[in-house]
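Think of the structure tokens as a kind of shorthand, similar to the way a musician reads notation: each symbol stands for something richer, in this case the local conformation of the backbone. In the example below we present two proteins back to back. Begin with the first one, reading the sequence and then the tokens, and try to describe in your own words what changes along the chain.
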Amino acid sequence: MDTKLRLKEIEIDNFKSFGKRTLVPFLPGFTTISGPNGSGKSNIIDSILFALGLSSSRTMRAERLPDLINNLSGKKEAQATIKFTDDKEIEIEVTRKIKVKDNGYTSTYYMDGRTCTLTEVHDKLLSYNISPHGYNVVMQGDVTSIISMSLNERRKIIDELAGVADFDRKIELAQIELQKVQEAVEKENIIMLELDERLRQLEGERNEALKYLKLKNELRELEKHCLAARLNKVETEYNLLKEENATLRQKRTDSIIKLGQLNDEIEADKQTIADIENEVQKITEQNQRKLSEELETAKIEISKTQSTVDFLNKQIKDHKDNIENLESEIKTLDKKLNDLERKKEKNKKEQEKLEDAIWKLNQEYQKLQDKLKSKGQNQNLSTTKILEVQKKINNHKQDKEELLTKYTRLEEQIIHLKDDLTQTKEEAEKSLSELKELTQSNNYKNSKLSQLQQKHAALQKHISKLKAEEIETREELNERTKKLAKLERELDKLEVHKQVTKEAGGLGAAVDTVLSAGIKGVHGTLAQLVYVEEKYKTAIEVASGNRLKAIVVDTDAIAAKCIELLRSTHSGRATFLPLNKLKPAPSLLPTSQKGALGSAMDLIKFENKYKDAFYYAFSDTIIMDTLDNARKNIGKNRMVTLEGDLLEKSGAITGGSQAKSNISFGVSGEAEQERLQREVKSLQDYVSQLENDLNELSKQVEEAKEEFDTLKTEITKEETNNSSLIETIKKLTQTSEISKEKVTELATSIETNTEELEKLDKKVKEKEQDIINLEVELQQIAAGIKDTSLEALVTDTQDIESKTKDCETKLQEIVTENRSYAVEAEFNLKAKEQYEGKITNSQKEIERIINELPEHEAKLKLLEEKVGELEGESASEIKRLGELNTKRNEISNGLINKGEQKGELQQLIEQFAEKVTSIELKLRELEQDLGDLRTKFEEQTQNEEYKLPENIDLDKIIKQIESIEKRMRALEPVNMRAINEYDNVTSRQQEIKDKLTSLSKEKEAITNKISSYSEQKKINFFETFQGVDKYFQEIFHELSFGHGELVLENPEDPFGGGLIIRARPRDKKMQRLEAMSGGEKSLTALSFMFALQRYSPAPFYAFDEVDMFLDSINAERLAQMIKKQSIHAQFVVVSLRRHMLEKSDQAIGVTLRTDGFTQIIGVQNMQKKKDEEPELMTA
């Protein structure tokens, strides 16, 4: 249509935020709607969608249509009216109104003032290329939708533009028509096939009827011979089985008697072993333990005595070494004493010389004194005074001499005390050092002893643990060996049972014949296809009612084939369960009766494909634990107890003793055999491991015992050494304490004497000062006297005094030295006496030890003899134990052999019993077969006399019967009225052929029409795709200065793939839409939407904030493009971007009033000059 349509105005009333009637005018060209966030500007676009029915309420951001009504105004209805006008000034008005009522709401459309439907509105708009599926109204989420939609959804946009849906509808209608023709052809073909088959049947039926009657007479005669031969064969087999059964019963009785004798022998051997074990226990617990304790005690005493002897010998050696050292010290002291004596003699001679010189000087001095006295009697007072002073000097000198003597003696005493103190300290230090060493040695030995004792205790526990483990391992070995023998017997028994079951043919001749025939589609009997736990076997067998022998096959055709096989081989009858015909098994509800273990179907395991077959066997039978619990629920369900009691719904109860079944559940028997084989192998390995562990434990016990004895001896030796060491430490401690006390006393004496010496020294110095003072005084007096002779006397006196003083000093030094020698000699003599005393004590101690030593050595010898005796007795007991153990092992081995014989006998008895049971079951089956065969034979002969031909070959007769039956089956069925029926069928066949020719022509015409539609659909799609791709490339280049393209995922089959959008913005690499950044995605999606619009242009477009994700540059480019496109169509854009406003022809301002309603504040012409007053048109 060439006429251009545009929006003229929108009138909104009570719609969303427009609470009051509002008129929104639109001018041609590019219009922007702008306003603050939340002001309701997007609601103008929503009103367009609402009025034209272009979208759902969810697209307009509302859960339901009534949610579009303004909730502030109080009114219960809303409407929106859109006026369109074209270039011929023809107006179209579309109104939509919704109104809420008590029972819901109504939505009504009006066009040009009259009520209409939404379809009429869309049809009218479609004439202007405006549709609900187009992109002339683009909301905020549409751009995101283009980005996030799948490739197939994106391709379907092109499908819609190309009108693919119309072609699909035409193709679908043609295919429906073609299907109808095809069904008619198939129907007629089926009829034709049936007619052809019928003609083939009728053609030879007449001739076959005569052949069939002849064959039937021959078959009857052969069946009579076959039945007679089978009856004879079964009677012979029955008699042989009876004889074999009697023989087996006798063998079983003989074996039972032999088993009883073997049990008696086993019990006797067990009693013998018990007696041996009691004797072994008695020897072990009483004699051997007592011998072991005595032997251990004797060894400990030997160790103690040996330690004592060693210690005494060590003491003798120590004392001898001590005497040797002391004698060496005495020699040294004697040498020192001789040296001192020589020095004393020398000093004595010097002393005598000095004493003689002093005596002479004193004589001379006395003469001078006498002269001074005589002179003084004749002189004056000064001379007298000199004499008095001289007398005082002499007195002071005498006092000084006495003090010096005391001083020297005291000094000598201090020297003696210091020497004594030094010696005592040295002895004390030596004792302390030795005590320290012995204490450290004692601590080390105590620590070592403690470690040995701990190791001894730990070893004792370890030995006890090893013995307990050895006993436990031995017991477990015996237990496991017995269990292994039992499992091996069970495994043999299971194998024999399996073989007997196989030989006995427990499933019957008919089943064996079918299973051995190798017919495809035969799965086996129910018993072979199920797994049953041991405790449920009896109940499951009773519940099945002998249906476990039923054979499962795939189809009823296979069942018929198997029946023909049984009939042809005269192998009896069997029940077949064709899986394709069985009634489906219903779902069973869980039972809540007391004592119910579950339904039989739930307690067995089978493949799911056999479910219907097993439901046939068990139905809804419930397995109960006891008969009492089952009786309480009688009549509700069919029930079977674990003991095999059967309770029917009717109230009938069947029970009693249950004969041993010969049915072997295929899965469970094999699984049990495999389980036993695994368990036997595992147990054999474990028994072997236990034997190795037992040998290793015995070896460890022996090694631990040897280590235990060695440790005990070592502990005893250490305890003895520690006792001697403790005694020595006590003596040294006492000596150390005495030395400490003596040191203290000597130190106190030295201190006291030193103080006294200091006092004497002070007094000596005072006397010397007094003498000096008196001498000065004497000189002064002498100086005052003018008598020269007197002065000379004084001077001579002083000289003599000086010489005397020098001699006295030398004499004093010699005396002091002599006294020192005397003190040292005295000290050495005392030391010598002490050393001699110590030597005497050591000699006495050696004598005492030598006297004591023989007693300990004799005791040691006696103990060693006792140990020898005890070890001999122990060896004898051990030998006896060895003999008993050997005997016990021989009997145990014999017992194991007898146990194996017993197991073999029990197994043989069970085998005889199973074979007897199997034969009796076989006899019962043969009895039944004999009865059936005799009955059939009487029916065949009809009481006629019959004589069995001689040398009859049963196999040959069976083959002849099979051949005749096969020929008869080939002829069946025979129809005598086939001639007339043949002509009728031929006429009907020609009618069908004519009709098929007509239908074939019709089918060809429809097929050609479908091909034409498909080809045209593809052509239209590619035209549309290429057009949109061209516009997309142009628009993307215009918006981004880059390159973009649309690519079909599957160009060969475009409807089998999706649409890929690829683009390369300027200065970037080519990439798919999904790999782009957020802004690039939006720009690319907008380009795609503009391409769609340009390919299928609409008269107007409405965009809701499509530039919100674009940056400033891209937003400006978008605005420029819209401006450019507005020449050809009207654009209404909701936007907040500056570039969009600047490029628009006019702008509509929107705001939100204080009462919550949206208001249009004006329309501004944006293309007027900026310096002019803008033209404002208020609404």
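Once you have a description of the first chain, move to the second and do the same.
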Amino acid sequence: MIRIIKKKFILAFLTTVSVIHAQFALPSFQGVSVKDKNGSRITITASDGSNSVSSGSITNDATLTITFTANESVTGFAVGDVGTIGGSLSSFSGSGTTYTATFTPSSDRNTVIYVPASGYTDQWSNNNLASIPFYWTYDGTAPTYISGTYITADNSKVKIRLSEVVYDTDSGSGALEIGDFTLSISGGTATLGSNNPTSITKDTPTFSSTAIDNDLSGAFGVVIRDLDFDGDMDIIATGLDGDDVNWYENDGSENFTERTIDADLDGALGLVVNDLDGDGDMDVFVTAFQGDDVVWYENNGSQSFTKAVIDANLTTAYGLDVQDLDGDGDMDVIAAGRGINDVVWYANDGSESFTEYTIDDELDGAGNLVVSDLDGDGDMDVIATALDDNDVVWYANDGSESFTKNTIDNDLANARQVVVRDMDDDGDMDVIATSSNSSGDDLVWYANDGSENFTANAIANDLASGAFDLQVQDIDGDNDQDVIVTAFNDNDVLWYANDGSENFTKNTIDNNFSGPAEVAIGDLDGDGDLDVVATARTGNDVMFYANSDSGYVLDISLSGTPNGSETLTISPTSNSIYDFAGNAAATSQSYSTVTLKDQRPTMTITAVNGSSASVSDGSTTNDANLTVTFTSSASTTNFSVGDVTVSGGSLSSFSGSGTTYTATFTPSAEGETTIDVAAGTFTDASGYTNAAATQFNWTYDATKPVINMRASNGSSWVNSYDVTNNSSLLMYFIATESITGFTVDDVGVINGSLSSFSGSGTTYTATLTPSGDGLTVIYVPADGYTDAATNNNVGSIPFYWTYDGTAPTYISGTYITGNNSKVKIRLSETVYDTDGGSGALEVGDFTLSISGGTATLASTNPTAITKDVPTFSETKIDNNLDGAWGVKIVDLDFDGDKDVVAGGYFGDDLNWYENDGSESFTERSIDANLDGVLGLAVNDIDGDGDLDILATAKEDDDVVLYTNNGSESFTKSVIDSDLGGAQNIGCNDLNDDGYMDVIATGAESNKVIWYRNDGSQNFTENTIDESIDGPLRFVVKDLDEDGDKDIVICARDDDDVVWLSNNGSESFTKNTIDNNLEEPRDVDVIDLDEDGDLDIVATSGDSDGDEVVWYSNDGSENFTSNSIESSLGSATTVDVKDLDGDNDLDLIVNSFHDDVVLWYANDGSENFTKNFVDNSLDQATAHQVDDVDGDGDLDVVSTGKAPDDVMFYTNSDSGYVLDISLSGTPDGSETLTISPTSTSIYDFVGNAAATSQSYSTVTLKDQTVPTITGNNLASDNSTIAVTFSEAVYSSNDGSGSLEVSDFALSISGGNATLSSATPSSISISSNTYTLGISLSGTPNGSETLTVSPVDDSIYDAAGNEASTSQSNNTASLNANYVIDLDGTNDHAYVANSSDFEPDNFTVQAWVNLDAFENEDYFVYRHKTWFIGFSRSGTKIEGGVRDDDGDWLYPISTTTPSAGGDWYHVALTFDGTGSSTEYAKLYVNGSLEDTESNSNHDLNTQNNYVSVGAKNNDGTISNYFNGQVDEVAFWSEVLTAAEVSALYNSGTPLDAGSNSGNYTSSSGLVAYYKFQQNANTETGSHNLTTSGGPTYSQTNISSADDDELP
């Protein structure tokens, strides 16, 4: 791996210095004989054709013949087995033991030829051993003069500097002699006394110091490298105490800019620069003494460094080197840990992953180290110092990175630094080291005898505390190695000049450098000699010592006196000056001439300002005048002001004598000036006329700089006032001239922050990140930076940007119409169909879905979409602003909500109304004494980040500025107090100079005035036009799109709409757009028809013609008038905004005479529909449109002059109405979801609405109409109960109980008719309504009764109306039948059942007597109970027999009559009393008799219950002659009230009881209605008829019916 090691060594070495010197020979190697044990070896030699060329030589041969000699015969050796660096092989041939080839170098450079192991074999098939490489430096370039040739002031000596060390012979030896140079002269008057120098000496270096940094705390390590590869040398340094790693960027003129690599490396100490990762840039390596770290800073190619810790545990990490220690082709890191006595190396695996290996862990106080092939065996060794052991040691590498420790010196007190060089030029590497202790030698070099036996030689032993750091270079260019050291406690930087025999002379570079630490050598200024850079730990300094010379000084002999026009040429004599390789300097050279010094008197011109500060030639200042001093090199008596010529100004107050004269210079204007004294204008005491003075140049600049701002989102420019969704912007700050002192702290930001600020001169950048959604303001206030003339800046026009990172969302207000045909969605902001902020929404932008219920969607998209028409609700902000006039909406206090600014014309008030965020406004007074306040404008006119206010005062003719101090406290200043009839006012940078100007109109003076701002709010009045009669409101826009700002204005008294065209220099040409618009009041300029050019909208204050007009621009500023409104009394102010959010521009207009605020809806084709915002605002004057309440739609604020009102009109809606198509009838349980279709709905900046939204669902309205689901007709036809499918109401809002008038009855067929079509009564139970029926006639059962809802009378809770046409709403009337008994053999009976013998019971019947017969029974149970005629036959009697055989016979007092009268008969028995039993008889609801006995149970019998006869176990007797109906039996005792209720109910038994209707009573055992059958209405006790009784129709309708007895 030798070739890679050597390559890295050479390259690393060559980066140390910028000039290749011949004395930097490559290491040479001495061959040794090797016994053939493992393989053959080739020896490489070379010849130039006539002479041999040894390894390590430097020659100028174009090619070499290379000979490869094997120590035994080999096979398989080919040209491919030979490696070369810096050249190529050709003509390869040979066999056996000898091979040859021609080597051609690729350029002037170090070259290497090597044969690695295992490329060929010997006769025993042993692979070859690696050869010792052949090193050769090709130098085909002759020495040349370099810059720095100069002549002394008295023309006696000239200095020549050469590009490399030179010699008197072509063999690289011999000092130059006078004959080696030839002189010649031309021009002027002087001539040469000799054509050769009269003597020649080598110049001794002198050093001048320049502080690079005086604040690097504990400055320590230092390296010189071209870190940024820009062709000049930079400096890298560490600060041990400040933990800093810095680099200092050289601008090519040795002006250094400090750059921080790391400000937090604990105890930054050792420093190396190399390309570790092979990416072509230089990385930095540092040890952290206190932090115990070995750190690598990876250079990203632009000197931005990434920190990587290689080792975090090397205690008190100290010395450091970076080399390819293991020869594997990548750079490894070698370091010393002083605190743990370690020398370690970190093997790089090629991917910058490191493995730590210990070389020595017992080197007491391991200090500095260096890696070099000290023993010349082809691998890298390590040489180190031991601070605490006083040792200098070296570690011999066996080729496998196993190291053997060898001591060079064990008595060098506090051995600190070590360097390896061939000090004595004997072909082997020597060692030089320092001692930082004064007890012995301070600086020693150790001569290597070639076998690594070292002899110590003291260079210095007189330093107070020894030497600290060390470098070895030929600093004086005399062909030997000099030594440069630092002496820490002596405060010295020294160099020891080598006389060529290793005798050293001490020279001081600096003797007052506080605690110097380390030193670096390199040609920092590129002048051909070596400079010095040193660090001072105590003084915290990094110092640059420029080597002022390393040339040859030639004495010349002249005849005559030079006048400065003579050219002296110093040429190398032919074949006299050579470099080490034998290249001869050409006789023709650059830098070979000097101009002899002019020995005539000269005049020097200097200047100071009024503060006596020097003003240098070529400078730029803002001084109003200069004091100029003329200084002559010799005394003169005839120099006068007339001898001076000037441009750009004038001289005054000239005075002086001898050698010094002064005058005052006053510039005539801003710009460049010159001051000259021509040649031959005065003489000195010797009579010599003067030479021309060097012209004095000065630029007078009194203009203050300003910064203009712009921004980029990475792909396009973002303009001020834009709204975007970029998460950050790159801000550009462009100054009008080069500035200094501009930092990020000079920039103010509201609602955001700046980072990554950088720049210089005129251009700076920073990244702007918003704090959140909303307006972000970036501003640069005045007095933050200066220009070259030290003028402070003025405030910039702020950059306003609104960040919107929030996607549009649904907001509350989603609803569906009652018929489910339309649904409304409201959004948080105006939305579009595309992400470009254009296009109206379409049906496909919404997706519908439905769940639940019965209805489904016919389409999953709306069938149509319309933008809802805004409606406005008003709030009074102020009702006491006398003569309310001008108004502006603006976030004046930058708190995120919109405030209002308004003026009161009669009250002279200027107010602002602070919004608390909930649209509650607090009045704040700005000025209560502005006479006739009219026009208003709000802008940041001074660029300090807050908003100022401009106003006109018509009655005072004033134009006024209110400067905001940042907390909404305002300072008033009058810009103009003489603008007759001051009207409108605006703020704009009219001339694009970066300052906000003011424009105002005077209606009485007919003036349009531009107040030019100088940036410091000093305004210069410029009349733009004074021919417009009655100029009022105006707009500043680039109407013709030519890049400058025009003005469109309305001329009230001329009836004109005028365009003032700017020619680019703020000279304006008047153009008439309309000369027949009566009393125009206001204009707006906007692209109304969206065709890419600007149109104009104007209003008229006269009712005789059109009041609202728009002028369409054809693109060439030809305008066509289009009427929008012609029926108003007047139109005053106009605003053009998309008020309804449908993506076209609408108009908002105030009408002063009509007392209205209007808006005209644009249909997208510029057809306008008039709508009212307010139709009763008295003298509606001015308005503004903005989203005041932050709900996503535009609101209106307007003033009413007469009522003194400031009104706020909230736009209540900005939603979309979607038509939906349904299948089926909704039942009210369906949920409709209205979702934005994916990536279909966008806000203006391109944020897409999410498909999932709050407020996205509505419940469909129940459209199922209420219906009658059933009915129940009373058996006696007295009522009908109808049941509805749901709850119903009398009102469509789900309220109100139904009344009889809500129903209509009708009847068809049969005999009976209705007495009234309206029910006679109504009762409600849940959804069932029982309606009373009033009949005429007797139903025969063929009548159909229909119950219908009356139209518009019955509704469900959802407002669905019950139809007048219903199913389940008819019933057939009941014909009331009774059983007819003939008194002979007709009867009916029920089989025996114990159900008819309870202890408590009630039995009833309705009876009608055809004839009286004693003991005829109506209802009978043998030996148990009965009701019938008494035994006398004239009364109605009941009977009850107890289980003791005793009968109770209650009997009526009523004597029934035969022949048509009906009687209600009821018998009750209570047999549960504790001592008494009762039998009671009721006739026609009245208690007729009560019989009692001691308590017994009812008698039990196994027998029938019979109707119309006595049935005794089948023996029938006592037949009843008459009619019977409504026979019922209860196993309970009915009360008298209940019996009365039964009587009064008629038939059927539908009267109420305590437990409900009697037919549903739990005690009812049997109930017989005799409706042409004998079936019971409850249970299973059916009657059986016998004898053939018949049924007849009889109506028993109520207790008070005449047919009832």
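Compare your description with these statements about the second chain. Residues 1-38, 1550-1556, 1595-1605 have pLDDT under 50 and may be disordered.
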